[in-house]
Write a structure and sequence with these properties.
Layout (H helix, E strand, L loop, with lengths): L1 E4 L5 E7 L2 E7 L5 H17 L7 H12 L5 H13 L14 H11 L5 H18 L22 H11 L5 H7 L5 H6 L5 E2 L2 E4 L2 E4 L5 E4 L8 E4 L2 H10 L7 H15 L8 H10 L5 H8 L4 H8 L2
Antiparallel strand pairs: 1-2, 2-3, 4-5, 5-8, 6-7
Helix pairs in contact: 2-3, 2-5, 6-10
């Protein structure tokens, strides 16, 4: 238990018990004995209060409903699947029975077969639910150490061979646009109205919602809304055919994989061409310019993701 003076001049007594933090604020500094008595009285009243029968799974459904029109469709899709993929015992726990001990246990179990990044995503979801329905619970979890990111960057030769093999197919333009730093969702959402001369206006993307339907959404971040220049011959090719890409997003990956197999070159996804774009641009311009062209929120994000 400790007592601290706040910037307002008031005093706050804090006590942590069973992973829960209890606080009382006073106008004047209380004695230690008075603060302890008041805090333990608060704890006893809370312990006597009827506990909610709401389970973590039920709370997560309520949370998702609260955020359905705020978070992106892809985030809602991920959230809706987290409870199904957690160890079964955790989602069934009453929300009021969850303490730091249970959080540590489920994070440890999830860490057995998932990457540190995925574990952090699960923990973020758990923290969001508990922060909404158990705001008094202080969460302080030790998470797996992040792994150093070593992104694969396709070689010039492999990119040229891939593009050459795709020329004349419906997949050629999406792969070219990926070489200019566009994300798959941004490419598949493009319309003719987004292309003016040789300038592409990137202002939306597509993503799968919780029902696995592709829907139009805003770009990943505000900074992702941007204008980029592409070769006029590519812009004219798009206008001539009347569209950018009409197929399913996953079909691009399937086609790329088949072509890579036939050419005998390493497998790399469409997204790896953003690595290629960033690495090539950084040889001729500064980080801030590359950040703006690629739609990264900050140069720290770009460097953390691509280790460039």
């Amino acid at each position: 238990m400790y007592i601290e003076q706040l910037k307002s001049g008031s005093y706050r007594a804090t006590l942590t018990k069973d992973g829960k933090r209890y606080r009382i604020t006073y106008d004047t500094k209380p004695t230690r004995r008075q603060a302890e008595a008041d805090l333990y009285e608060m704890i006893s009243k809370k312990d006597d209060a009827p506990k909610s029968k709401l389970t973590f799974a039920e709370a997560s459904e309520k949370y998702i409903d609260m955020k359905r029109n705020i978070l992106s469709p892809s985030t809602i899709r991920d959230y809706s699947k987290y409870c199904q993929r957690m160890p079964a015992w955790f989602p069934s726990l009453p929300i009021d029975d969850i303490s730091q001990i249970e959080i540590n246990k489920v994070v440890n179990e999830i860490s057995a077969d998932k990457s540190p990044k995925t574990v952090r995503n699960y923990h973020g979801f758990i923290s969001a639910i508990l922060g909404t329905f158990r705001p008094q619970l202080k969460i302080c979890t030790t998470l797996p150490q992040k792994r150093k990111n070593e992104p694969y960057i396709p070689s010039d030769e492999d990119v040229k061979r891939l593009l050459s093999a795709l020329e004349g197919t419906e997949f050629y333009i999406p792969v070219v646009l990926a070489c200019y730093g566009m994300r798959r969702g941004e490419i598949c959402a493009l319309t003719l109205e987004d292309i003016e001369g040789d300038v592409v206006h990137i202002n939306k993307a597509i993503a799968q919602n919780e029902h696995n339907e592709y829907v139009i959404k805003s770009t990943k971040t505000t900074e992702s809304e941007r204008d980029i220049m592409i070769p006029m011959e590519i812009a004219d090719m798009i206008r001539q055919q009347g569209y950018v890409y009409k197929g399913y997003p996953n079909s691009i990956i399937c086609k790329i994989t088949k072509v890579q197999d036939s050419l005998g070159i390493p497998h790399f996804s469409l997204h790896k061409l953003r690595h290629y774009f960033a690495s090539k641009m950084l040889t001729i311009t500064d980080t801030k310019t590359v950040q703006a062209l690629g739609g990264w929120k900050t140069d720290n994000v770009m460097k953390a993701v691509y280790d460039l």
